[in-house]
Design a protein that fits this description.
Oligomer: single chain
Bound molecules: adenosine monophosphate
Largest sheet: 8 strands, mixed
Low-confidence stretches: none
Radius of gyration: 28 Å
Structural class: alpha+beta
Mean pLDDT: 93
Helix content: 25-40%
Strand content: 15-25%
Distance between the termini: 42 Å
Strand order of the largest sheet: 1-5-6-11-10-9-7-8
Number of strands: 16
């Protein structure tokens, strides 16, 4: 159908109509149920934040901050940014609400829209949605295992059984400093530097680890011989990682180690992980996360260890659709009320009200149409019952209840105070 709107939605954003939004409501309720089983509490943070939060928290050298943020100046000349990710906001709230002073450990989760000015393509949008979980205050590697297990359990609960867990440790800050020097030396070698794309040449200077995020084939080939982080890990880093891998193995959770998976954000330390699917082509990452022991401090708080993840909800729904999921069965309407004539129409409000107070869904015609058109509408709405009444029925103080699936009808009292839910249960 040709669009009738002169004003179009922004590229990379979408409308959710009732059929689609039902999928989202379902998805959100499943996520909330698993989060509750893991004892994570929901946090809702603003969608816009001071730009500085992401410059500091996400990191100046990340693609997000350098080229993907929706930043605007408000009337008070303040720089605001539509949040590109949730973690910096959660940590800001943790500090702003002095949560650390109340309890040593917080398990928080969020669900909501994120904004990134990326080139729109399948699986990549400008307004997209993430759910994520953060454990703030958790030193033990068992927290990494808890977060990975939670991330996996949500996927399993949704029916995604074939997502692959990719794991790495990018070490503590010291290990990374060493590795950065080593990697930069490699990237500056004339035979390598000459073949790198412009972005990767910039990354060589600003944050060499980021080159592994490059999707260009040429860069990928050159990076095959790049040094990897494992040689630089400290004894504590190794111990931490071993605990994580051994615990996962103990739980029967299979994983693959990818020494080049360093993730795109500045704040990660030690464990990083992703769940990938083979069902979506290039945009194959469903969830990504890891430990971020430095972030609370970067945002002005005391040194506080933390670990978390974020998952892309559009990609999760796309994965389900690729696996043949037919979506959520729409709820059927319970009763469609067909009123014929002015007197019947004038009592409609009371009839609908009585049905709704019984907890039933009820709808009617609002266009003054005849019985035939109203019955057609009842059929379209998938109504289980049609309640029909006109002048005659009202005189007899009766209404006709038509059982839509059974081609039969019965008379019921027009006195709504005598109605019970049982009257509208299927009896056949
Ligand atoms: P990130 O915050 O970049 O670690 O991303 C976490 C997850 O969010 C990814 O694994 C994707 O599933 C999803 N995601 C990130 N960027 C986008 C985007 N532009 N459009 C849709 N999903 C996205």
């Amino acid at each position: 159908m040709k669009s009738q709107s002169e004003i179009r939605r922004l590229q990379g954003t979408f409308d959710l109509l009732p059929g689609d939004s039902a999928r989202w409501v379902w998805l959100e309720s499943r996520i909330r149920a698993v989060m509750a089983r893991y004892s994570f509490g929901e946090i809702r943070v603003p969608i816009m934040e001071p730009t500085e939060l992401f410059q500091k928290g996400t990191g100046e050298t990340t693609d997000i901050v350098q080229k993907e943020m929706y930043t605007l100046t408000d009337r008070g000349n303040r720089s605001l940014t539509l949040r590109p990710e949730g973690t910096p906001s959660v940590v800001r709230a943790y500090l702003e609400e002095s949560l650390g002073a109340q309890r040593p450990l917080w398990k928080l989760f969020y669900i909501g829209p994120m904004f990134r000015a990326e080139r729109p393509q399948k699986g990549r949008y400008r307004q997209f949605h993430q759910y994520g979980a953060e454990m703030i205050g958790a030193t033990s590697p068992s927290a990494d295992v808890e977060v990975i297990t939670l991330c996996r359990d949500i996927l399993l609960d949704l029916g995604i059984h074939d997502a692959k867990l990719i794991l790495n440790s990018i070490g503590s800050a010291e290990a990374r400093a060493d590795y950065n020097t080593n990697l930069r030396q490699f990237l500056l070698r004339p035979d390598i530097a000459g073949g790198l794309c412009e972005d990767c040449r910039r990354r060589t200077q600003t944050n060499p680890l980021r080159v592994f995020d490059c999707k260009k084939e040429g860069c990928g080939r050159l990076l095959r011989d790049a040094p990897t982080i494992d040689a630089h890990l400290t004894a504590e880093d190794r111990q931490h990682f071993e605990f994580v891998t051994q615990s996962l193995a103990g739980l029967g959770i299979t994983y693959e180690i990818d020494l080049r998976m360093v993730r795109g954000l500045d704040y990660y330390t030690r464990t990083t992980f992703e769940f990938k699917t083979t069902r979506l082509g290039a945009q194959d990452a469903l969830c990504g996360g890891g430990r971020y022991d430095g972030l609370v401090e970067v945002l002005g708080g005391p040194p506080t260890p933390a670990v978390g993840f974020a998952a892309g909800m559009e990609r999760i729904l796309a994965t389900l659709e690729e696996s043949g999921w037919s979506g959520v069965t729409p709820e059927r309407l319970d009763v469609f009320v067909c009123a014929i004539g002015d007197r019947a129409r004038s009592t409609l409000g009371a009839t609908l009200g009585a049905l709704r107070r019984l907890g039933l869904s009820a709808d009617t015609d609002f266009q003054g149409r005849g019985l035939k058109a109203q019955m057609k509408e009842a059929g379209r709405a998938g109504a289980r019952f049609a309640l029909i009444f006109g002048e005659d029925e009202l005189i007899r103080e009766q209404m006709s209840l038509r059982y839509m699936d059974e081609a039969r009808q019965a008379d019921i009292s027009a006195d709504t105070s005598t109605w019970t839910r049982g009257l509208f249960e299927k009896t056949a």
